[in-house]
């Protein structure tokens, strides 16, 4: 009885605290993720007031949070949208991987953490935060901008890459041999291909089988199917997160919209629990030693993300101001970086503190970069343009201001669903 009472008190305090922190973050205009992580650090091992009774429950809730994050991510896209983005945006995806995964891998090797940790830290620095970026685009009123589909296209490529990366990382962390890891990767690729094929050819039949006019029945069927598939995927060493993502892709139309509406509050709750759980398992005393590497890595990968966005927007024919906005918007890291680090801490515990510090830095810097990268770049360009005049050269006539072609009203061809 005493244990149950302590569990209820601790769990109630956690949820209430998350609600207060979320409201505070909303008023300030930032993502609540850093506050959730700080709360976990404060009440975890080595923190101010460690929680004991609710630790196992929070651990289970964190697993559900990851599953719901990936499920709702999959619900945002139809199979045809994913295939189209893959065909048109794959060069940008390759550049994204090369510029942003390599710094993380190199950092892990320089720190002496080994090749498996290098693969994990590469994922931490590679993947942008879809949740933070979606919120930033809405807050800044850029959903109808010409560069927004480019941003979403890069994020979609990253999501598809996760379906291959996560099973590979899981196999490496499990210590499987080359043959075992290759088999896991082949199973994952085959599963992804099969799901995309079935979703393209028979998506309406699947959605019709799951569909229900009763919200309660729809919630139970979709949630039960997702958890079941996630468990089977975990058993096959493919990753529960990938299984949940594939379920989301397979559903489309009104079923996907209804399920998204019903599950979004649950996603927000359990995702918050996940970030708290990650903080609970990170010793605050382990963060100061990795703070400098995390800061250096954050600065480097913020610049490489800006370069990625510039390249992707340039390929799409977006003008200069939109290219800078694209790059700045992609800077934020968040939920996926923490998911990857959470998988890897069993092999290299130091990844947890480094990833926590890294995400804290970039989840705060990300919205600022989205807002100010383009104005700073424009001012720097003007200053550089004036440099010859200060050296005695005859100043050139002022160029006509560039028309803000990127801020075009949203049209059916430009709009796309953002990810929560």
Describe the model.
The protein is mainly α and 420 residues long. It has a single domain, classed as Na+/H+ antiporter like fold (Up-down Bundle), CATH 1.20.1530.20. The protein is built from 15 helices and no strands. The protein starts with a helix and ends in a 30-residue tail after the last helix.
Features:
Na+/H+ antiporter like fold, mainly alpha, 76% helix
Task: Summarize this structure briefly.
With 420 residues, this protein is mainly α. 76% of the residues lie in helices and 0% in strands.
Secondary structural class? mainly alpha
The proportion of residues forming helix, as a percent range, comes to over 70%
The first-to-last residue Cα distance is: 39 Å
Shape: globular
What CATH architecture do you see? Up-down Bundle
Strand content: under 5%
pLDDT average, as an integer? 79
Number of beta strands: 0
Tell me the name of the CATH class.
Mainly Alpha
Radius of gyration: 22 Å
The number of helical runs is 15
What is the CATH topology classification name? Answer: Na+/H+ antiporter like fold
Order of helices and strands: HHHHHHHHHHHHHHH
Unreliable spans: 389-420
Largest sheet: none
How many structural domains does the protein architecture include?
1
Please describe the topology of this protein.
Elements: H1 2-28, H2 33-43, H3 55-75, H4 79-110, H5 115-126, H6 130-139, H7 148-173, H8 178-210, H9 215-235, H10 240-250, H11 253-280, H12 288-315, H13 320-329, H14 335-344, H15 351-390
Helix pairs in contact: 2-11, 3-10, 3-11, 4-5, 4-7, 4-12, 5-7, 5-14, 7-8, 8-10, 8-11, 9-10, 9-11, 12-13, 12-15, 13-15, 14-15
